[in-house]
Specification:
The chain is α+β, with helices and mostly antiparallel strands. It is built from one helix and two strands; from the N terminus they run βαβ. This is Caspase domain-containing protein.
């Protein structure tokens, strides 16, 4: 079974207060998932920031 992870970090919300760390937090989560990928627990990691 293939396991996928999609991580999205968005600091720029339209008409809302901007966040300061959402993109950095998403990158940290991606890094953890990539370490899992190296031990065979995850098949694909994708990250999108500030869409």
């Amino acid at each position: 079974m293939k396991t996928l992870a999609l991580v999205i970090g968005n600091d720029d919300y339209y008409k809302k207060h901007k966040l300061e760390n959402a993109v950095n937090d998403a990158i940290s989560v991606k890094d953890v998932f990539e370490r899992l990928e190296r031990v065979g627990e995850l098949s694909l990691v994708m990250i999108f920031d500030t869409l």
